[in-house]
Specification:
mainly alpha, two-stranded parallel ribbon, 4 strands
Amino acid sequence: MRAGELRLAAPDTVIAEAVFVLSSPRLYHLPRPEVRDLLSLLVRLPGFRLKNRRPVLRALDLYATANLDFGDALIVASMEQAGAQVVYSYDTDFDRMKGVCRHEP
């Protein structure tokens, strides 16, 4: 690390909380695409360390475009990265996602 360079590590849950706060009607009430754009900039910063950077960025895109909540979008993005197609859930929102086959437990 060079002098004056800042590094920060955060878990995925920090991004999930930021999505919640920025999109909350009681707080900032930002539209989904704006939330995606703001948080994608943060996640892409060179000094920002995030273990699951690619799935988080993909989840932000899905959140903005597929009308999924961020948690579900992160599940779909993680499934895509792993090459998985089946999710066990009662959440019917997954039924709208191409390439995802939902089974009830």
